[in-house]
Write a structure and sequence with these properties.
The complex is a heterodimer of chains A (410) and B (149). With 410 residues, chain A is α/β, with parallel strands linked by helices. Chain A has 15 helices and nine strands. In chain A, a hairpin with a 5-residue loop joins strand 7 and strand 8. In chain B, a hairpin with a 2-residue loop joins strand 3 and strand 4. Chain B is an alpha+beta fold and 149 residues long. Chain B folds into two domains: 54 residues; 76 residues, Glutaredoxin. The chains are: A alpha/beta (410), B alpha+beta (149). At the A-B interface, strand 3, strand 5, strand 9 and helix 12 of A face helix 2 and helix 5 of B. The structure holds flavin mononucleotide, iron/sulfur cluster (SF4) and FE2/S2 (inorganic) cluster (FES).
């Protein structure tokens, strides 16, 4: 397998994102014709074979998710493309929509057909104006060219896609909160079980996939699951977009094979460290991500449970030796406090109180009680909250303590 | 355009509620008590349920219309690019603290992440986005708005 295999970004800057005809000229929608003649079961088998893992953060096997939704009998099923992307430092899904919107639509059609959904939604972050415009245009053009609607492409399959624009809430990226939001409710996570694949949108079997997951689908169907599974190393497959930022020479988004280590991400892709600066640590996966000291930069971000470094959202922020850690901790906690949906007490109160404590730490009036409370609150957030947001809010702070990055907390 | 005009563009379906609320907000600046009541009647819901949903989202204001809304990204990436200094400069310009809810004309608000991190710090004034904002540029940008008022 060639080293620079592009799956997700191969058409970027070559295709005109405003024109379906341009996408077609570059081979777009070709595989769809063939897929629509396949039995849905065989499509799912191909995705299982590919080993594709969800790019929304959790790394759940996509084939397994589709198998589950397909197994439930129902006259109505839904397929949702999660483009609410709002993890700080992460903007890969926005770029996928802005640079190649039809690739997403083709992926959505394949996924919907495979699980038996006749209606799909794209849930777009409310700040992504250009992405929204281009997706809307792409959906309209897809209808005009009969890639959507009744009996699409001359088959007996019908699919409608609707775009739903979010209204500024990080928690709506969580799939059950997202579903509540489409249903016109507060975007609060639901209790599970029942699971989304059985009882999701309007209580029907539903698949929610991240946009980057969906963008991988047409390539897999074109080249085969086996070929996809050959990309990557160290037990992780396929390619992934990393958004690299901080004290690197060329901040930006890079598609890399899974298994690429942090050193390569920084030096081979992002041009290395800015001259005159030195990394203190890196944060992987946005504000919900863990901290990695330079002596572990040879590790590669992975979806495997026992990996040293998790991929998370795929953001990589390289932090300078000169960073004021108290200010950064406050920014993390401000974020989680603002975005806590408020449904459960440990997260609502815990993030608020930690924020106050971190403010005092920054302003120099941090007391002995504050220190004790800090550790208790971290434990509470880590262990007792209703959804994963509470747990996320404790990850980086735990690492600050673990690596001794802030002496007042020791 | 009246609230009713806007509402009738939407079928009475759950997934149209947030869409209608957003369009009314766009036209009228915020969602007030009258709007809540009309929306509730149209969607056959309790006003409290409409309010509960509307007030959940950052981009929907149930607290009145501001002449000027200044949003500054305080996500971790912008923070490492010194967004705190930019915030201080904005506060100085208006003589008002961030997230202070007492001024009914100007609202200065911390935002989570606009997804344009590599171009940060990001500041958005009345829906117009400014990239790579430095403390030195704040005065220039904001003056472009206040000088007209
Ligand atoms: C607090 C929170 C925020 C999340 N935000 C997003 C998001 O912005 N985009 C996304 O695709 N998944 C997000 N997720 C994960 C989704 O719940 C879901 O697992 C994902 O969309 C599934 O897609 P995948 O299997 O393709 O990864 C979030 C989860 C949590 C707990
Ligand atoms: S953990 Fe936080 S975000 Fe999740 S349900 Fe509880 S309050 Fe809401
Ligand atoms: S952190 Fe500011 S735009 Fe992403």
């Amino acid at each position: 397998m060639e080293e620079n295999q592009k799956v997700l970004t191969k058409r970027w800057r070559k295709v005109d994102p405003r024109e379906l005809t341009s996408y077609r000229k570059l081979g777009g929608y070709e595989v769809l014709q063939r897929v629509l003649q396949m039995k849905p079961r065989l499509i799912i088998e191909e995705i299982v074979k590919s080993g594709l893992q969800g790019r929304g953060g959790g790394g759940f096997p996509t084939g397994k998710k589709w198998e589950s939704a397909a197994s439930f009998e129902s006259d109505e099923k839904y397929f949702i493309c999660n483009l609410d992307e709002s993890e700080p430092g992460t903007y890969k899904d926005r770029l996928l929509a802005e640079n190649d919107p039809h690739q997403l639509i083709e992926g959505i059609i394949i996924g919907s057909y495979a699980v038996g959904a006749k209606k799909a939604y794209i849930y777009v972050n409310g700040n992504f104006h250009l992405a929204h415009f281009l997706l809307e245009r792409a959906v309209n053009q897809a209808y005009e060219h009969h890639f959507l609607g009744q009996g699409l492409m001359g088959s007996d399959y019908s699919l409608d896609i609707e775009i739903f624009v979010g209204a500024g809430a990080y928690i709506c990226g969580e799939e059950t909160a997202l579903i509540n939001s489409i249903e016109g409710k507060r975007g609060e996570p639901r209790k599970r079980p029942p699971y989304t694949s059985e009882c999701g949108l309007f209580n029907k079997p539903t698949v929610v996939n991240n946009a980057e997951t969906i963008a991988s689908i047409p390539w897999i169907m074109e080249h085969g699951g086996t070929k996809y599974a050959q990309i990557g190393s160290n037990g992780d497959v396929g390619t992934k977009i990393f958004c690299i930022d901080g004290i690197v020479k060329n901040p930006g988004a890079y598609e890399v094979p899974m298994g690429t280590d942090i050193n390569d991400l920084i030096f081979k892709y992002a041009g290395g460290i800015e001259s005159g600066d030195e990394p203190w640590f890196a944060q992987i996966g946005g504000s919900a991500g863990q901290l990695v000291p330079p002596n572990s930069f040879a590790d590669s971000p992975s979806y495997s449970r026992d990996a040293n470094v998790s991929v998370g959202s795929g953001a990589l922020l390289v932090i300078s030796k000169n960073q004021d850690i108290k200010e950064l901790m406050l920014s993390w906690m401000n974020f989680f406090q603002r975005e806590s949906c408020g449904q459960c007490v440990p997260c609502r109160e815990g993030t608020f109180r930690l924020k106050m404590i971190l403010e005092r730490l920054k302003n120099g009036n941090f007391s002995k009680e504050d220190k004790d409370d800090f550790h208790k609150l971290i434990w509470t957030l880590d262990n007792t909250t209703f959804c994963a947001l509470g747990k996320f809010s404790a990850i980086a702070l735990k690492d600050v303590v673990k690596y001794g990055f802030c002496k007042e907390l020791e | 355009m009246t609230i009713q005009n806007i509402l009738t563009k939407y079928q009475v379906r759950q997934e149209n509620l947030l869409r209608a609320i957003k369009e009314i907000q766009k036209e009228f600046g915020s969602i007030d008590k009258t709007a809540i009541d009309e929306i509730a009647r149209y969607f056959k819901m309790k006003p409290a349920a409409v309010f509960s949903a509307a007030s959940f989202y950052d981009q929907i204001s149930t607290k009145g219309k501001f002449n000027m809304v200044v949003k500054i990204c305080d996500g971790a990436n912008c923070n490492t690019k010194k967004s705190t200094r930019v915030i201080e400069e904005i506060e100085r310009f208006f003589g008002q603290k961030i997230d202070d809810s007492f001024n009914f004309k100007v609202k200065i608000q911390r935002e989570s992440c606009f997804g344009f991190c590599a171009q940060g710090p990001i500041m958005v004034v009345n829906d117009v986005m400014y990239e790579k904002v430095t403390p030195e540029r704040v005065d220039d940008i904001l003056r472009g708005y206040t000088d007209f008022q």
